Amino acid sequence: MDISIVIPLYNEAESLPELTNWISEVLFKENYSYEIIFINDGSTDNSWQVIEDLAAQNANVRAISFRRNYGKSAALYCGFEAAQGDIVVTMDADLQDDPGEIPGMVKMIREEGYDLVSGWKKKRYDNAFTKNIPSKFYNATARKITGIKLHDMNCGLKAYRSEVVKNIEVYGEMHRFIPYIAKNAGFTKIGEKVIHHHSRKYGKSKFGINRFINGFLDLLSLWFLQVFGRKPMHLFGAMGTFTFMVGIVIAIILIVKKLVAQANGLPFRAVTDQPLFYLALVAVLIGTQLFLTGFLGELISRNSNERNNYVIKKRIR
């Protein structure tokens, strides 16, 4: 099969028939074999009934329905697991993503060798205050941290080689950073394509401005796991050792100064009467705790089921 299109959705019943027909028209013209996989993320409207009707009319339609709302990452994870196509495309169900962009993205993967192609909604039809401006700041931060030069990392319209989605795990709210997750798995040829963006035709957006705050925290988590996930002692141990040594050095200086003054008959303060001594004591305690945190992190890491979970590119014999 050429293409699998994975579409997570939540309460998008009105848009599904039009979206299905639109996708089918585009891919039929290109003579692609394809499947459309709807992931019903616990919708409370009649989305599932609409999907059942579409599946009865169109043999290319497949679907999975969750018992409750788990979020987009969970939906994509199940969609990726079910996908059978050589190239996997993800898109939103609200008709804002244009299926007409799919052939161009597929061409970039097949002919230009990209592992992943992300859409760039260069001209957006969203509220500037709640989406456009925060999105620009968020993407600038993401580019800085990840080193991936994408203008719209969270764009729902993306195309992947099947190998990519079969070797990454999307969980929590990490769907925003799939290009970074793919890069960390060794799929480094990541491209971008300017796409048409349409205004929402039915319903309303399911995402609020708080997603940018959560997204920034998730990005920090991913960065930490990539850099120190398999070697937590390198971070916490180094910080702990440095803090511990600073505390010890300060304490030694205070003690030596007191002993020198006492030996020379000069006035002196008791070490325990000096605030700096207690700061040194706090530094020693914090340093010890950081070191133990790194040690516990190493124990957890070494017993993790994923400690040797590596992506193999090729094998001979």
Helix-strand sequence: EHEHEHEHEHEHHEHHH
Total of helices: 10
Distance between the termini: 27 Å
Question: Which architecture of the largest domain per CATH?
Answer: Alpha-Beta Complex
Strand percentage lies at 5-15%
State the CATH topology of the largest domain.
Spore Coat Polysaccharide Biosynthesis Protein SpsA, Chain A
Q: In the CATH hierarchy, what is the superfamily of the largest domain?
A: Spore Coat Polysaccharide Biosynthesis Protein SpsA, Chain A
Spatial order of the strands forming the largest sheet: 3-2-1-4-6-5-7
What class would the helix/strand composition place it in? alpha/beta
Overall strand count: 7
Described by strand count, sense and barrel closure, the largest sheet is:
7 strands, mixed
Please give a structural write-up.
The structure is a single chain. With 317 residues, the protein is of the alpha/beta class. The protein is built from 10 helices and 7 strands. It has helices at 16-29, 47-57, 72-82, 102-112, 128-146, 162-165, 178-184, 210-228, 232-263, 275-302, and strands spanning 3-9, 34-40, 61-65, 87-90, 116-120, 158-161, 190-194. It has a 7-stranded mixed β-sheet with strand order 3-2-1-4-6-5-7, sandwiched between helices. Helix 5 packs parallel to helix 8. The longest helix is centred in the last third of the chain and has 32 residues, at 232-263.
